[in-house]
Specification:
471 residues, Uridine Diphospho-n-acetylenolpyruvylglucosamine Reductase, domain 2, Alpha-Beta Plaits, 7-stranded antiparallel β-sheet, 5-stranded antiparallel β-sheet, 18 strands, 32% helix, 21% strand
Length: 471
């Protein structure tokens, strides 16, 4: 049976267990915990709790559940869909102090980490140990691995290494009733019953709070080569992707495509230097990770030359150093500056059939121009993994018509048979449009799973979809 919320009793019980450095309430709640990166209005929660151990997370859930108080897990607060956005009257469980690398197992090629560990810390630790952790995204310095797994982040190298879930062997998580489930498996082959961890990866903190993870590490690349190419048509983009898959095989680690509107904002508004001369219909960043520069460097060079000969590439800058590669990626990472330079906007990560992406871009741009005053929309994405990003805004107003923009974009996604979320989750912002990409039967099953694990609906309630109040 649901319990009437007892916030005063909850705070009293929490304060009896956690010290003042861990439990922050009222005016002591930090401003950073009042919002995430989704441009939703700030919300002041009941309290912010910063446990330093998995047991502390589980104990907090037991206390909040006993007092009928909702709980929202928060990581690096870099989410764009509102999954970590506060709820009034709820306790925020911030994982910022549940941070650190517990073990690197050379024999198993694994790293055991706490959920609050920043992604960049994991990347650097893997590199120092002679390994490579492939998950990578622009917020690497701020985002936390728990949030990455909770949203099943994709990032830049999905075409080779897969989504975040592909790098997880074991997981520990606290259930809404305070049960701590520890399954820190290190074995690649382990088919003993249900693969329970998959329920929690991508569930956005609605089924449990991830506390620790065993990550699968990869061999450190012996060399990295990259090229930034200018192309004349989207047909050439698709042909180049096919040629890269066939000609580079498992070396292909990134295939990033930028439309001219994005390129203009990156080079003119942000001010990133263009490695190419002239203007092109499309810009493609290709990265290949090999074992030996002596072998794979010339192989990459020969492959690029072949693309010129085939007429797929109009111009290309080919890396000669790690500095060149960083400069190429700077064009793609320029989107991280859009928030400060373009102002409030609506950001989208959507999934689409690769062959229809440019058709979608044209249709979406036309629809936005018709429906939004002085609309600006720019398009870019990973493409090789069916993921397109876009941002849209109205230059006619400082108060963005976010609902109208979202309605236009997601209706176009639905018309093209795409997914409203490729890697950022659903949260609050995409919740009204989830049915565009999921059938009624799928949504019903999601609710059954939620009701089974969280019958009181206290864990991140209202995110992804709404639940009926338990009888």
């Amino acid at each position: 049976m649901p319990r009437p919320p007892d916030p005063a009793g909850c705070l009293s019980a929490l304060s009896a267990v956690f010290d003042k450095a861990t439990l922050l309430a009222g005016a002591d709640v930090p401003a950073r915990n009042l919002h995430d990166t989704s441009y939703l209005p700030q919300v002041r929660p009941l309290a912010v709790l910063r446990p330093a151990t998995p047991e502390g997370v589980a104990q907090a859930l037991r206390i909040c559940g006993a007092h009928g108080v909702a709980v929202v897990p928060q990581g690096g607060l870099t989410g764009l869909a509102g999954g970590g956005h506060p709820i009034a009257g709820a306790v925020m469980i911030s994982l910022e102090r549940l941070s650190g690398i517990e073990e690197i197992d050379d024999a198993a090629c694994t790293m055991t980490v706490r959920a609050g560990t920043p992604l960049e810390v994991i990347q650097r630790a893997a590199d120092a140990a002679g390994f490579f952790y492939p998950l990578d995204l622009g917020a690497r310095g701020s985002c936390q691995i728990g949030g990455n797994l909770g949203t099943n982040a994709g990032g830049n190298r999905v075409i080779r290494y897969g989504m975040a879930r592909e790098s997880v062997l074991g997981l520990e998580y606290a259930l809404p009733d305070g049960t701590l489930v520890t399954s820190l498996n290190k074995m690649i082959k382990n088919n003993a019953g249900y693969d329970l961890k998959q329920l929690f990866i991508g569930s956005e903190g609605t089924l449990g709070i991830i506390t620790r993870a065993v990550l699968r590490l990869q061999p450190k690349p012996g060399c990295v080569n990259a090229a930034l190419c200018g192309l004349g048509s989207y047909a050439d983009v698709v042909a180049l992707l096919g040629a890269a898959r066939k000609g580079l095989g498992p070396m292909l680690s990134a295939f990033e495509v930028m439309w001219p509107d994005y390129w203009h904002e990156a080079t003119q508004t942000v001010g990133v230097r263009s490695p190419l001369s002239g203007q092109h219909a499309f810009y493609v960043l290709i990265e290949a990770q090999g074992l030996s520069e002596a072998v794979d460097g010339p192989r990459f060079q020969t492959w690029i030359e072949g693309q010129f000969e085939a007429g797929r590439v109009e111009d290309a800058a080919i890396s000669q150093s790690l500095g060149d590669i960083a400069a190429f990626w700077a064009t793609r990472d320029a989107c991280s500056e859009f928030g400060s330079l373009l102002g409030p906007h609506v950001a989208f990560d959507i999934g689409l059939p690769v062959a229809r992406m440019d058709d979608f871009v044209r249709a979406c741009r036309d629809a936005l121009n018709a429906g939004i005053p002085d609309a600006l929309s720019v398009y870019y994405g990973h493409i090789g993994d069916s993921n397109l990003h876009l941002i849209a805004l109205s230059r006619a107003t400082t108060v963005q018509p976010m609902a109208e923009i979202a309605g236009i974009v997601y209706a176009t996604v639905r018309d093209f048979g795409g997914s409203v979320s490729a890697e950022h989750g659903i949260g609050l912002l995409k919740k009204p449009y989830l049915s565009y990409s999921r059938t009624p039967e799928e949504l019903a099953l999601m609710r059954r799973i939620k009701a089974a694990l969280d019958p009181l609906n206290i864990l991140n309630p209202g995110k992804i979809f709404d639940m009926e109040t338990p009888a």
